[in-house]
Design goal:
The chain has 118 residues and is mainly alpha-helical. It has one domain. Helices cover 73% and strands 0% of the residues. Helix 1 packs antiparallel against helix 2 and helix 1 runs parallel beside helix 3. The longest helix is centred in the last third of the chain and has 31 residues.
Length: 118
C-alpha cells in the first residue's frame, strides 16, 4: 500500500514542480500570456496526471487505494500551495507604490441616457 501511495505522490510532485517552473516564468509575462499559460496548464496537467494514473493502474499491480490516496492528497496539497502563492503574488502586484494613491477599478461609469433614446 505504501509503495502505491509514494508513486501517486511522486506523480503529483513531478507535475506540480513542472507547473511551478512554468508559472514562475508566466508571472513575469503580460497578463494575457499568463492567462493562456494558466488555463492551458490546467488542461495539460489534468491530461498528464490522468494518463499516468491510467497507465500505472493498468500496467502494474500497485495497491489502487494507496495510489489514488497518494495522488489525490498530494495533488490537493500542492494545488493549495500554488493558489496561496498566486494570491499572495497577486496582492503584492496590486499594492500601490509608496507615496502613491491606490486605484480601484470598478467598471465603467453609468451613463444617464433615457431608455429608448439614442
Amino acid at each position: 500500500m505504501w509503495l502505491g501511495f509514494e508513486v501517486g505522490a511522486a506523480i503529483s510532485a513531478v507535475t506540480a514542480s513542472v507547473t511551478w517552473v512554468v508559472f514562475r516564468w508566466a508571472v513575469s509575462q503580460r497578463p494575457a500570456v499568463f492567462a493562456r499559460v494558466f488555463v492551458g496548464g490546467i488542461g495539460v496537467r489534468l491530461l498528464v496526471v490522468s494518463a499516468a494514473a491510467l497507465l500505472i493502474l493498468g500496467l502494474t499491480d500497485l495497491h489502487r487505494a494507496g495510489f489514488v490516496a497518494g495522488l489525490i492528497s498530494t495533488y490537493l496539497l500542492l494545488l493549495g500551495l500554488e493558489v496561496a502563492y498566486l494570491l499572495r503574488r497577486s496582492r503584492s502586484l496590486t499594492r500601490a507604490a509608496p507615496g502613491a494613491e491606490a486605484v480601484q477599478c470598478q467598471g465603467p461609469e453609468p451613463v444617464d441616457t433615457p431608455v429608448g433614446r439614442s
